[in-house]
Each structure stands twice: as C-alpha cells, then as structure tokens.
Task: structure prediction
Amino acid sequence: MTAVSTPGVESAPYTVEEVCEQFDPVMGLEVHVELNTETKMFCGCANAFGAEPNTHVCPVCLGLPGSLPRLNGTAVESAIKIGLALNCQVRERSGFARKNYFYPDMPKNFQISQYEDPIVFDGYLDVPLDDGTTWRVEIERAHMEEDTGKSLHVGGATGRIHGADYSLLDYNRSGVPLIEIVTKPIIGAGVRAPEVARAYVTALRDVLRGLGVSDVRMDQGSMRCDANVSLMPKGATEFGTRTETKNVNSLRSVERAVRYEMGRHAGVLLSGGTIRQETRHFDEQSGTTSPGRPKETFADYRFFPEPDLPPLEPSRDWVETLRAALPERPWERRARIQTDWGLSDEELRDLVNADALDLVADTVDAGAPPEAARSWWVSYLSQQANAAGVALTGLAITPAQLARVIALVEEGTLTNKLARQVVDGVLAGEGEPDDVVTGRGLAVVSDESALAAAVDEALAAQPAVAEKIRAGKTKAAGAIVGAVMKATRGQADAARVQELVLERCQ
Amino acid sequence: MSEASAATGGQSELISLDAGELARRIHAREVSSVEVTRAHLERIEAVDGPGGVHAFLHVDAEGALAAAEAVDRAVAEGGPVSPLAGVPVAVKDNMTTTDMPTTCASAILDGWRPPYDATVVARLRAAGLIPLGKTNLDEFAMGSSTENSAFGTTRNPWDLARIPGGSGGGSSAAVAAGEAPLALGSDTGGSIRQPGAVTGTVGVKPTYGTVSRYGLVAFSSSLDQIGPCARSVLDAALLHEVIGGHDPRDQTSVDGPLPPVVEAALAGARGDLAGVRVGIVTQFSGEGYQPGVLAAFTDAVRVLGELGADVVEVSCPSFSYALPAYYLIAPSEASSNLARFDAMRYGLRVGDDGSQSTDEVMSQTREKGFGAEVKRRIMIGTHALSAGSYDALYGKALKARTLIVRDFTAAFETCDVLVSPTTPTTAFPIGERTDDPLAMYLADLCTIPSNLAGNAALSVPCGLAADDQLPVGMQIMAPALADDRAYRVAAAYETARASASDAGPRIPELRALEGSR
Result:
C-alpha cells in the first residue's frame, strides 16, 4: 500500500480502519495537570506562569543544600477532589517517595513523587463520545508530584538538548504541584481509539475546570498528555510493545498522535519488524512522531520513601466534606441546564461555543431569568467583547453585576436602552451598576408629576400638534413623546409618556 | 593577641569557664562579651593553627566581635537578654550560614556561601550567642575520625597524634581545647556523642525531630539530628533549649513542647537518683571493647548505684543488627541527598570547557569533588536502592530498624534510662583505621541504635581510661521526648564525679603543641 504524502506532511502508512482489520489497539493515557494553587508544592514561592525566569525561587525549590520540603495542604485537597471526581478511592495513609535521576532542570536530582501508595486510586470516568454514547475509562491512580524546572536549549537545529550550543535553566516551574492521572489500559475501542483518547482528555479537562483546581491550558503546559499506544493481533490478550508519545499539546493532537502511532505500529509489524519500546515526540506541524530517548535500558529510579515528609493521612471527615462539595460533572450540568432553561440544542451549542454557559449560569444563580441572562451574554456582551478583542470571561463585568442590571430593568428603573448604558459604565470601570445609574443619572423618570409637567410643556410648545391629537389623530402623539423623551434625556418610559399625552388630550 | 595571653598559649581564665558562668558574668557586666569573644579568638589563634588542633575551617573574628559588641550594648542598656547572650559558640560546617562559607568539609562545596541561615543558626543569633566560626568534620558528616575532611584532619586536644572522633571532631575538639565553650554538632550515627566521648566533653543527640534540621546539609534525613556540645551537662542543656523546639520549615519537627532539659540538669546536679531504673545494655561489652573503657564505664555505673539508682542488666538482641542496618539506610538516603551536587548551580565544576556534555561535567565534578568515603557510601546506597537489591538490602534494613525500635520499647518498660560505653575504645591514632572502613565503622557501634530508633541519647565524660589516660564517655539513652531523663542522670553523675579524686583537668594541657611553639 502506498500512502499519499504531501511534502512536509508525513502520514502513517495505514488508516485506523485498516489497522483495526488486523489489530486491537491498547492505549494508556497519562495526564499531568499543574494545580493552580497560589504557592508551590513544597515552599511559599508563587505558582505563576510566565514570570521573568528564576524570580519565583527560594532555597527549597532550588534544592539548595539543607533546605527541606513543606507540604502545601491545598495541593493535597485538590488531589483528593480530583480523585473523588474520578470516582477513585482515597488512601487512608499514603506517602511521598523520591524518584532518583539526574537532569539539570531538576535541582535535587530527585523528584518528590508518590510511588506505591498514590493518594487516590481505582476509579473511572464516563466519557461522552461524539455520537452521544459514553465510554468508561478506568483510572488506575492519580498521584501528587512536583514539577521540574524548564530547560531552554539555545542553538542547534532542533531546540532539543542534543546539538544545542548551551542551555538556560528556569526554575520558576520547579516545585509547582502536579497531579499525574494514569488510566488503566483502554482496550476494545478499536477504530474509535483516537476519538476515545481525545474525548477522555476533553472530559478530564472539563472535570478539572469544573473543580477549579487547574487552569488546564494545554497550550501553556498546565495540562500535558502522554499517550501510550500498542497493538495486539485481533483477539489476542497479550499486549504488544508500547510506545509513549510526549509533547501532545492539544486535544486535537491527542487524537492525531494516537491515530498516527496506530498506523505506524501496523506498518512496522506488518512488514515483519518489531516495535521498540521508546518515548516518541509528537510534531504538531507534520502530525507525526519521532523517536525520543530510547528506553533500551530499564530506568531504575530507585524509589524510596521520602524521609523529609511524614505520611499523609487525610481524615475521613475531611474527605467526606470534599465529596459533598463536589460540583456536577460538566456534561451532566449542561444537560440539566438545557432542560431547566428550555434551550434548543442549537441555543445550548451557541452558549457553549461562546464560552458563555458558566457566565449565564452564574448570572441565573445571581437571580436573573435565564432568557434575559442568555440574551445579554450572547448578544450585547459578546459584541462588546469582540470589539474589545477579549474573551467573554475577560470582560470587566461579573455575572452578579449583570444580574443587578437585569433586575433594575425588571423593576422598571431602567429601560433596555438605559441598561446598555449602565453596562457600558460598569465595563468602563465606573463601579457597581447602581453607582453608574447614579453617576450618569440614568434612572427612568418615574415621577408622574414631573412627567406630566413635561408633557404639558411639550403640548404647550406645539399647539398645532396638540390640536391634531385632540381631534383624534393619535399618531401625532409621537412628536410630543419625542419632545418629552428629548427633554428627559431619554430617561422617561416612552410608553408611559404616550399614555400621558393621550390622557391630557382627551 | 595580647602578650600576656600569648605567653600562656592564649589561655585566659575565660576560656576554661562554663558557658553558664560566662553568661552570668557578662550579664552582670563583670566582663564584656567582647572580652570573652576575644579570649576565645586568641585561643583559636594559639592552638588551632598548623600542627595544632585544626578544629575550625573558618573563623569570623570580625563578625563575632561585632555580634559581641551588640550584646554588650544591649546589656549596658539594661534590656532583657536571653540566658546565653554574649557567649561564643562554634558551628559544625554542615549547617548553613549567610555570613560564612558552608563546605561540609568537601571540595565539592568549597567556597559556597548559602543565601540562608539554618534554623539553629538563626536561633543562636536571635538568642545573642556569638558564632565564632565553622568547625571541621568528616566530609558530609561521613566518618568517625574527621580524617575524611577535604581540608585536613582535626587533632584530639588530649593527644594531637590521635583522632578527635567524628564526624563532629571539630566541634568537640574546639570545646575540649577551650576554643569555644559551646558548639553545635549533628549526629547521624554518633557524630556528636562519639567525639564527645573521645575528647572528654558532653555531647547530646536530642530526640529526632526536636531540633530543626532546616539548613543542616542532609546526610541521612531520617537519622540526622542537631545537638549541643559542651564541657558540662548544664551548658549542653542551656544550648539545647536555645536551638530546640518546633520549626514549621521542618515537617519532621515535633509540634510540641521541648522536654525540660535545663530544669532536669539543675535537678540532677542537686539531687540523687533514688528510684531511677538504669539498664546496662549487655550487648555493649566484651570483645572489641578496650579494658580501660569498660573499667571506667563500670566505675561510672557504680557511682550511679551509689547515687541511689537501681541498676539492672537488659538485653537488646536486635542491636546486633544496628550497624549493618545503619550502613544500608544511611548510605541509601545519602545517595539521594548528595545527588544535588552536580556542578549545575553552585560549588565545584570540573570539565566545563564547552566540549563536554552535561552528564560528563556532572560525572567529572563528582569524581573530583567527593572523597573516597563519600563515594563508597553513595555506591553502597545506590546499590541498596536498586531494583534488584531493594528488598534484600534497604527493605531488610528497615525491618531491622523496626526490631531495634521494639527492643528499645521493651527495655524502656523496665528501665528509665539505658547506659553503655559511648564508644568501644578511646581515641585511636590518626591513620590507624583509614584503610579499614569496617574497623572505623565499629566506633559507632553503641551510638547507632538511638539514631535508628530516634530516641534521646547523650555522652557524658567518665574519666580517663587507666590503660592510656585518654577520656572515656558513658552513653545515657532515654525514650523519645524524655531527653530530660538523660540530662538528670548525667548531671547527677557529673556532680558526683567532680568531687572524685581522679576528676582530671577540664581542659587538657596541649603539651605537644605548646612545646612546639
């Protein structure tokens, strides 16, 4: 078989469908998630992305001689929450272990991790697939560990360590809390394996986002996926040799990497070759993988219990408190919202695509009717966000503030037009909605006597028009209403003005 | 140095006084902290130079005098000062100091200036003690003689041809020689107590977790414990109270009150030992024990009996596993703790000529920067933790450790304290055991069990061995968090001995040295 190839873009020799005629794929997905705790895992340094290199460092995260780790309780809480959300068991007594290997971006030349006793284990995630069915991905374990620093290899062709002229080290990331979530082997997905992989990582991302424990930004590395893939002959039970593909930095890449590796494995196996157990590097541009460091020799990390940290024994009560406070699963929440608010599939999709679902939900939670909340976020506020070139979530108005604006409209203090001005004021930093109403003098003029006086004044100023109205030509009232609205700078309720004009001309 | 003190080998009266007495005089303004500090600096200059004791790797005279002046000002202003304010102290060179290098007596850290103070050092400063300098040790605290220092051996003030013990030979020798009234040591397998015994000084390994390890360059994290070195039990207790207590920076630190060690030392010195049950560990005698050491120890036990203690024998059969278990656990942890010395961020860097890979630079630096004993232990530890050996070596050692803990628990059901010689022999000649690591390791035979179990233990001088006229130490072991029991017994014994006819000199005359000058 010949594969169609475009210059610079290599495709695997076999399609997934072809692979699955002869093989069953087995996958294992390891997802690393950086927690969004304020401080690092074992010291008080800020856990922040994108700062000047080596500015968020101290003796502990630099591994200086004599320094000792001090465990961040929030990281433990996040780990337990993640475990509970993934239907895992929480270990009553777990501990940390040292994983020993030399690498310049790891200042102690060991990583504090968990080994035989991860804090949570044995769970599952029911993952929604595109066709509306779900796939249960079983979770082996999730454990805590510290992130390494970052190496920047300068010079050379590849930007990787071999061939570089020199390397720069940034330890801001050193000691950032990580959770590694490891699936059990995913067997039986067949041609859907790439889709299951993507759907799993997507669902996991949504769950973690819902928990609020991580930024889950694959583009910034706060969520990273390693995809293990192997093939076994159809109907076999013994797994084939696996490869581990790293550098898979988007949801789409997860699917592509699995698909590519399946095809590549089949190509090697069907031509009589053997798969080498190795780490492979995914190339976003070409959609292919290339060999990383070979794992020919078994890496012996010499794990042993971390003597600087006492065992971890989360109390039952604490775990149950965390369990009780777990949020709904994102897709279950979406389904519930659709029913509660009576949204069409299309309306729901628009909300999700606009990243407005949470904003609308929070606005509703703050007391606004769903329809009004939805309408504000997907129309006027979306326009403002587009104009400002920011995400909807980046607008300087909170759901609570919007809910207040909507309430002011509902109680008649604002017209829709005035409400937009109030929202503009909030976006411009003029304070809370009520402050803007006061500051800009935007409340509807509801003082009947003042309104009546304005109507009388307008009628007196335009006697000819007044005469027409009295003669029954009610359409002429528009001119008087316009004059009153102008005089009140738009803050009168036009419908009420109309009524007043007609009353006065009877 | 003043002419007067030069003529007496820097031997001002001040250098022979206890820390408690020095503090009393300083606070009463009978003498200034500057005078006390200067007397000790002069003593260091007189006896620590080439051919001398060589207890110090670094002396910060300027810093010490400035700190002393500050205390004198505070005393003059009548403000409150802490009990040991103004008293000089020496610090083992494996604890970080911002104003002095921290080398661990290793070429790999030569010249390193830490950006932070160890918690114990910060507490010394806060209490107004005067750090004089950093003392010598076996490289990374691995050894029993200080011969493994990359910067030369420390000599025993009692006989300059002999070792001062180790790893903390520098701290104990400095105290024995009157170069400092107090010092900090660290004890992983006996590194405070064994040097204390062979230099005729007091050395205390507090209960694991009661003195912060933050800033102590780790050798074996589950065993390392900082403690005081002094010439009297009360002085050790006073220093113990300054450095002890919970530290949030060390998660193995005990979050609770420190045992009342000063109170216990005072009570012991006043009172008798009526009703105190003392257990002699039968495993610590017999073959390999110097007769003069056993005789001095037996005599010390007799004194305890005279003071009213009920002396019994106890058997701790698992203690025979202590040495092999220790030499698997300690090197295993060390192999990991010492991995960070890789030339990337601080310390020595070898082979950085642009032509070699990172791995090669790391490897060459470690080859050149570490001494033979450190390499030996890194290799033993790396092997003990490796996939094929873990269960048979490291895993088995952990089991032995559990058995040793059980033996202690059982023994402390019938005894308040346990006693033994601190070390099987007196100070041996320099060079005698350098080619025989196993013989060297035997020096810690009696001290290691308390590190493995984490309980309190100290060494108190019990005179000179009849066969070689060198100091002998008695080890007193107490349950975890009952350090005060050991202090009470030690203080009672010390007081009884002080009136004995063979009490001997407190500070040895440095005859060989003084003769050569």
Observations:
- The two ends of chain B are 15 Å apart (CA to CA).
- The longest helix of chain B spans residues 391-414.
- Residues 1-8 of chain B have pLDDT under 50 and may be disordered.
- The domain at 15-318+403-516 of chain B is CATH 3.90.1300.10 (Amidase signature (AS) enzymes).
